[in-house]
Amino acid sequence: MKSANKKAGTITAYVIIALGALIMIAPFYFMFIFATHPRDEIFNMPPPLLPGNAVPMNWGLLLRRVPFPKNFGWSVYISVFQTALTLLFCSMGGFAFSMYDFKFKKQVFALVLGTMLLPAFLGMVPTFMLMDFLGWLDQPRALIIPGAAGALGIFMMRQYITSSIPKELVEAARCDGCSEFRIYWNVVAPLLGPVFGTLGLITFIGSWNNFMGPLIVMRSVDHYTIPLALRSMQDPQNTPWGAVMLGAAAAVLPLMVLFIFSSRRLIAGLTAGALKG
Asked: How many domains does the chain have?
């Protein structure tokens, strides 16, 4: 009886997991399917379930509405540089909070973490005013620099360094005459591979999908990132949904490939440092 109940529970769990996976995969499946159909066929009942032959037509519509290759390249440029700067500055901040003792250290760290509690929309108007004052409107630096030292990244780095890198290693480097920056660059940074991979993936995906940031600071269509470019194609009367779905599919595909090849490192980095801090 216990064996039968256990088997039934296992089957039920697998069925629930399969249904959940199906629900999560369905939007992506229909996005790729709709990308191959014209607008009229997408709204048929029942909707198309198999690929069509309208990809060239949708691609032509996409290129007529927005400079999609430029938008794609702009998204790559901004995401790569923001990810690189985030890894640099957050690892420096995490190293400082983990290895140094200074006055008001706990209070400053609590203040950094407190910024995670603020709703993002509260910074929309101040961000626009500051970027306008600096003359950074419609410039990539307006999207790259403001988010280059986020609280989540500093917290992740601090937790990982505290749990995985002994202070004795840093002290030994100081005894050998290393400067503080050399200790960070040559001793600590090479040991941060798992958390670099995790934070890098999170930052890249967040920057790639960022809509509100470009909406606030970008002005010319040539400088739009992919989410903003696809949104600009939509209008109340005649949105080319096939072209929009094709652009969305082209934007999602690199992220899916990136996640497939780095999901193991993402999980390892998220669990690292969870027991100590």
From this structure: 1
In the predicted model, is pLDDT for residue 99 greater than 60? Answer: yes
CATH number of the domain to which 253 belongs: 1.10.3720.10
154 phi and psi angles, rounded to 5 deg: -65, -40
Cα 70 vs. chain centroid, distance in angstroms? Answer: 20
Type of residue numbered 40: D
Instruction: Please state, rounded to an integer, the average pLDDT across all residues of the chain.
Output: 87
Number of H helices, E strands in the chain: 14, 0
Q: What is the pTM of this model?
A: 0.85
Rounded to 5 degrees, φ, ψ at 246 are: -65, -45
Domain assignment of residue 22, yes or no: no
Residue 234 domain-assigned (yes or no): yes
193 falls within a domain: yes
Let me know if residue 15 belongs to a domain: no
- Tell me the backbone φ, ψ of residue 111, rounded to 5 degrees: -65, -40
Domain region containing 89: 56-271
By three-state DSSP, how is residue 147 classified? coil
| Lookup result for tokens 């470019």 | 229
Which of the pair, 267 or 89, is modelled with greater confidence? 89
Q: What's the rounded Cα separation, in Å, for the pair 79 and 87?
A: 12
Nearest CA among 78, 205, 72, 85 for reference residue 141: 78
For 6-42, give the DSSP string: HHHHHHHHHHHHHHHHHHHHHHHHHHHHHTTS-HHHH
Burial class (CB in 10 A: 0-12, 13-18, 19+), 30: middle
